[in-house]
Amino acid sequence: MALIEEEQEEKVDQEKISKLRDPGFISSNSEDTERKSSAKANLHELCTKARWKKPEFECCNEEGLDHQKLFTFKVLVRVREESTTLECYGNPRANKKAAANDAAEGAPWCLKHMGYELKKQQKSQNISGFNIYRK
Question: Which of 108-112's residues contact partners 24+ apart within 8 Å by CB, and which partners?
Fold first, then answer.
């Protein structure tokens, strides 16, 4: 009996995992949505602090039927002092806002691996956000 229950639990867990991996799946978890919705704002703030141009978001692919469209966005970040342009692509999402936020999530990771150190400042009276240092 316990073996059957364990198998059923595994099936449920596998279904949850496959839903999360589905590019059209949008989590109803408010914390996950809040984190993703702030990725674009965080990237704008990061570029402003570094005195780079604003990131440019572009829908580079639309696929699927009219009632089940998936959008893929890319974001361009122009690093001024090195004449470098970072191009990050997001995963296909069911709406444009989610697709743009998904693309924005990858940019800080890429910048970090390009040698930029992104340090989150502790909140004080007037300062919040990121400091950006070149290693």
Answer: 108/42, 108/43, 108/46, 110/86, 111/46, 111/77, 111/79, 111/86
Arithmetic mean of pLDDT, 92-110: 93
- List, in order, residues 6 or more apart from 119 with CB less than 8 Å away: 130, 131, 132, 133
Instruction: Give which of 102, 105, 76 is closest to 91, Cα–Cα.
Output: 102
* H or E segment to which residue 123 belongs: none
> How many separate helices (H) and strands (E) can be counted in the chain?
3, 5
Structure token digits, residue 19: 């839903």
Instruction: List beta partners, residue 130.
Output: 120
String of DSSP letters for 47-101: HHHHTPPPPEEEEEEEES-GGG-EEEEEEEEEEGGGTEEEEEE---BSSHHHHHH
- Average pLDDT for 105-131: 66
Instruction: Extract the tokens encoding 28.
Output: 């109803």
Q: Please give the Cα distance from 118 to 97 (Å, whole number).
A: 25
pLDDT at 96: 95
